[in-house]
Please model this.
Amino acid sequence: MSSNTESATENGYPAAPHRNKITLTVNGQKHELSLSPWTTLLDALRQQLHLTGTKKGCDHGQCGACTVLRDGENVNSCLCLAVMQEGSEIVTVEGLAAEDGTLHPVQQAFLENDGYQCGYCTPGQICSTVALLEHDRGNSPAEIRDLMSGNLCRCGAYTNIYNTIAELQGAKQSGSDHE
Ligand code: FES
Ligand code: FES
Model:
């Protein structure tokens, strides 16, 4: 369990006089935080817990760079107020690998298929892919494209991202399981 407090300013604005104390469960660890009511989950992860694998792109729900898993579903953490996440299990890209450092099968597949260029969108792409596979979604090329449409890639690495997901989905359906 760790404890963090924010400094007198927050994102360039004076800190709020009122703070909410919450317990946030991230990657299996409980963290006690003191937060302004308007702090997003994204800012709590990056600025208080220093989990900078989750990226800030647009900061208003347009790009998917900030995608994390909340109770197994992919969500834009820039659109979630941190104070509303008590009781939820949050998983970020840092929480996907095994304790011994073995990459999650989705991370490994992105690596093997060059499913990225600069990598800025990659944590979000990976979290959305994990949710897609775990919920048995994306059973056709159109469905994969539709479900991944909230994760933008400024580098245009879409072909390899799509191929990575299609390969994982195909392996899962044939039982040969990349996972
Ligand atoms: S940073 Fe959250 S959707 Fe762009
Ligand atoms: S790999 Fe650069 S934004 Fe997607």
